[in-house]
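Quarterly update from the structural biology core.
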Amino acid sequence: MIRVVLPAPLCTLARVEREITLDVEGDVTQRAVIDALEADYPALRGTIRDYATQRRRPFIRFFACEQDLSHEAPDAPLPAPVAAGDEPYLIVGAMAGG
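Predicted structure, tokenized:
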């Protein structure tokens, strides 16, 4: 089980608590986690990554084990503590403006 922490607007959209758990088949990568998230919560499709390009939306960031994974390859393995369910995978809405 992978632990995922979502930003408040996505929690509201998906009607879930801040932290959810997902079953991820095969290698635990960002793509696999987001695929599982969108499969379990269809309301989130297109909110985290673009439908056509599958790229991360501009104001969404990914973190795990105190590392910014936003610019990592989507198929790169996530850190072992995330894959083991010991640490959460965080999806964060970035702040912008002045």
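The chain has three helices and five strands.
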